[in-house]
Design a protein that fits this description.
Strand order of the largest sheet: 5-8-11-14-17-20-25-28-33-36-39-42-45-48-50
Distance between the termini: 87 Å
Strand content: 25-35%
Number of helices: 12
Helix content: 10-25%
Radius of gyration: 30 Å
């Protein structure tokens, strides 16, 4: 039978076929039927390698598919290489130790569907150590195994001895569908009855697995108090070097995914993810590079790991003892969302992000902490929740009470499509984007959209960006005030970009700045009367913008501000509106910091519950958070009492309806998938909320629909109005920006260790004129040097400068081409 048609003879074109051998040794047969050549078929014959191989532990049907059973009070050690087909079951009281051995497993999809995995039952222990490797049969290419299935007892605490435990130290798990699965298995429905197992991974390698470690719904309640999950993942490597081997995992256009997620959290609290590295080096489509951490309604700590055994003054890790997390090459580095903003707190510290389409995406989560991170963006990005090929550092929607401080954001630069921070529909509580640094963004270094006019952007440094602050819809009406050295806005702006841009729909706001050149916006579209010189000088950036992250969150702050506000308001007969606004905003900010402190202390340690309740009763916005906290603690009577009040408040109706829905589902024992599948009207109600982006409850509805039904919604990155929006730079067209970049390459400023000074190296040959200036923190020029048509080195004399932060600028032919910091320590 021919494998291609005979020209002109339609009868002889029937029953065409093609047989192709695949990489795993199987075959694919494609063709049509003899009845109608338009009726096509495709047959996949899998390789029989896994079925016909020899195994040292054999779990075929005559053994009830169990290769090995480790029983109560039994300890078995594998310290020599083994091969396994079937399940290895570790029962309660049993222990399996894999010590330095290579254990190869069959592929259940290619061995008569015999599941080949390790099952750790409640009370059982699996220990993997000393460079052991769990992998697939080396003689059967293109295969995957079913990983480790870790069981627990949901109603028992993790200190009871009733949970399965998987310990992996300095060893490798590779080519698994799920490396460690905290439920009853990937091929069945989620086994909620088996959650609570404990994962303790240190120095391990998780390589080329479809998914790494998965946690499912579990609350670690001990003596009536909820504790953090006892699991931790420390100093591990999560790696994807190529496409997953299982051919059934393809996206809609036929590309093989590199990884789905390295760590997946679903309704768990307090898992510690410290000092790990997540790298997807498989260069497939950027939409299919997966997540480093995918979190639904969960709390986690994502931070450095400190190897020091001593505690330094101030509580930080001593220099040289930190192992900082790294995330690179993912579609989204960390994606955390929740239907209830008070489910669990999250914190992301000290992490290096690189080449991620979107580094961090947070939706519907209150009081998260994001600090000391460094983010480097790629040229373009894509994520199915986004509607265009744009990359972003931190994108936040429908969240409040957050702390975003002391981070460094780096854009791709020329011809990129990058955003540093995007905040959408946030700011019900007064809060700040504070003391961050943004460099080299082709789009917007920081973008504010659909926010609720309680958001402040303060004390950030903007360096060489196309646009520093873009306000498409919504910002605090007063950005900075003019009362003391700390009250003005305190942002420093790029020399060659647009300082502030806003759409016409944005309500008027005032921008109040210090009296200096550094913090004065020059290129903006605000009304001239709305940009105010406060005539306040400050000694240093630290004076105007003090480091606040690790302090000032105690009860003394709110007491201090309340007393100060009372004294001030009582002292004036006719209050000055702006002055009152300033003290009110500071009071609200202080209250938010106190709430943040008690919020984390309560949800982390259950030690400040009563104090948190007191502070959350301060105003309606905090009452919404209080309702969420009550619901999370299953204090449904008090939660519903607040809901009765909030349901009639503007902007809170849909949010309240979602919280009532979550409470009802929990009381009835229904999971969200069953509830929304059975009740079409309820699902449609959620769809309606989710699709209204201006509704604060939309993010929570989206999270619930995504987790329950798999629906995704676009997260919009708004554009500025026509005439103001920046198109990505075109490398083929000469623009002023490309000219600036070329001229910036003509100068270098660097320290000279031999003299202890700084050198300025320049090349101005060809009738060019240069002007070099050094400013102090007040914006005053302390050094100035004009250079003409020459090439050479100028020495910056450090003895003339005191210990402080300085800024230098360099102009060529009247155009500022470079501006950077000089930090002098003596």
């Amino acid at each position: 039978i021919p494998s291609k048609p005979f020209p002109g003879n339609i009868k002889r074109a029937e029953c065409l076929y093609q047989i192709t051998q695949t990489q795993d040794g199987g075959y694919v047969i494609s063709g049509n039927t003899s009845h109608n050549f338009d009726d096509n078929y495709l047959v996949k014959l899998k390789s029989d390698c896994s079925s016909s191989a020899y195994y040292t532990y054999n779990g075929f049907w005559w053994n009830n598919y169990v290769a090995l059973k480790v029983e109560n009070n039994q300890t078995i050690t594998w310290n020599t290489d083994q091969s396994v087909i079937g399940k290895v079951i570790i029962e309660a009281g049993g222990k399996l130790i894999i010590d330095g051995a290579k254990i190869e497993f069959a592929d259940s999809q290619k061995s008569q569907h015999v599941l080949s995995k390790i099952v750790v039952e409640p009370g059982g222990i699996l220990e993997i150590k000393n460079n052991a490797i769990l992998t697939v049969l080396g003689e059967c290419p293109g295969t995957m195994w079913d990983g480790i299935e870790l069981h627990g007892t949901p109603g028992a605490s993790q200190y009871s001895g009733q949970q399965g435990i998987a310990r992996i130290e300095n060893s490798t798990i590779e080519h698994a569908r799920i490396a460690i699965d905290g439920t009853s298995g990937w091929v069945t429905n989620v086994g909620w009855a088996n959650t609570g197992g404990i994962v303790r991974a240190s120095g391990a390698i998780f390589k080329d697995n479809l998914e790494g470690i998965k946690f499912y719904y579990y609350r670690n309640i001990h003596n009536g108090r909820e504790n953090d999950n006892a699991s931790y993942i420390i100093n591990c490597d999560f790696i994807c070097n190529g496409p997953v081997r299982d051919p059934q995992y393809l996206n809609s256009i036929g590309q093989v995914r590199g990884v789905l997620s390295f760590i997946n959290l679903s309704i768990v609290k307090g898992v510690r993810i410290l000092g790990n590295r997540f790298k997807n080096e498989h260069q497939n489509s950027i939409v299919d590079r997966g997540f480093a951490v995918l979190s639904y309604a969960s709390g986690f700590y994502f931070n450095e790991y400190c190897t020091s055994t001593t505690i330094s003054q101030g509580g930080g890790c001593p220099v040289g003892f930190e192992i900082k997390p790294e995330i690179s090459g993912m579609t989204v580095g960390i994606f955390a969302h929740s239907p209830n903003p008070a489910m669990h707190p999250i914190s992301i510290y000290n992490t290096f992000f690189e080449k991620n389409s979107h580094a961090v995406l947070i939706g519907g989560i209150n009081n998260f902490k994001f600090a000391y991170n460094e983010l480097h963006l790629p040229r373009y990005g894509f994520f199915s929740l986004f509607n265009s090929f744009q990359s972003s550092g931190l994108s936040v929607y429908s969240s409040n009470g957050y702390k975003i401080e002391e981070n460094k954001f780096f854009g791709f630069g020329n011809n990129g499509d990058d955003h540093g921070i995007v905040l959408d529909n946030c700011g019900l509580l007064t809060d700040r984007i504070y003391n961050n640094e943004f460099t080299n963004f082709s789009r917007n270094a920081s973008q504010m959209q659909l926010n609720n006019e309680k958001l402040q952007v303060k004390c950030n440094d903007y360096l060489t960006n196309y646009r520093d602050i873009a306000v498409t819809s919504g910002l605090f009406p007063d950005q900075g005030f003019c009362f003391d050295v700390k009250s003005p806005a305190g942002n420093t702006f790029s020399f060659m970009g647009h300082d502030i841009r806003k759409n016409s729909v944005v309500p008027l706001f005032e921008y109040n700045h210090h009296s200096d050149a550094i913090t004065t916006p020059i290129d903006h579209d605000l009304d001239p009367g709305d940009v105010n010189n406060c005539l306040i000088l400050y000694g240093s950036k630290e004076d105007a913008c003090p480091y606040t992250y690790r302090g000032g969150d105690g009860t003394e702050m709110i007491i201090q501000y309340e007393e100060a506000v009372a004294r001030h308001l009582n002292a004036i007969a006719e209050g000055i509106e702006e002055e009152i606004d300033y003290f009110q905003s500071e009071k609200k900010l202080a209250l938010n910091h106190v709430v943040n402190h008690y919020y984390h202390d309560t949800l982390d340690y259950a030690s400040s519950y009563d104090s948190l309740i007191v502070y959350l009763n301060k105003d309606v916005d905090h009452e919404a958070m209080l309702m969420s906290v009550y619901a999370r603690e299953r204090n449904y009577d008090d939660a519903r009492n607040i809901a009765d009040i909030l349901i009639d408040k503007e902007g809170y109706q849909s949010f309240t309806e979602i919280q009532l829905l979550l409470m009802a589902m929990d009381e009835n024992g229904n999971n969200s998938t069953d509830s929304l599948t059975a009740d079409v009207g309820l699902a449609n109600q959620l769809f309606s909320i989710a699709e209204n982006r201006e509704d604060f409850g939309s993010a929570h509805a989206r999270a619930l629909l995504n987790a329950a039904l798999g629906y995704e919604y676009p997260i919009v990155i708004e554009e500025l109005e026509e005439g103001l929006q920046a198109e990505p730079f075109n490398e083929d067209i000469t623009t002023i920006e490309t000219e600036i970049e070329k001229k910036a390459n003509l100068i270098k400023v660097y320290p000279n260790p031999s003299t202890g000074n700084f050198n300025l190296e320049y090349d101005l040959t060809g009738d060019k004129t240069g002007l070099f200036k050094v400013y102090n923190s007040l914006g005053h020029i302390v050094l100035e040097k004009a250079l003409y048509d020459s090439k050479g080195i100028v020495q910056i004399q450090i003895p003339d400068l005191s210990s402080s932060i300085y800024f230098y600028s360099f102009e060529i032919d009247g155009i500022p081409v470079k501006r950077q910091k000089l930090i002098i320590l003596k």
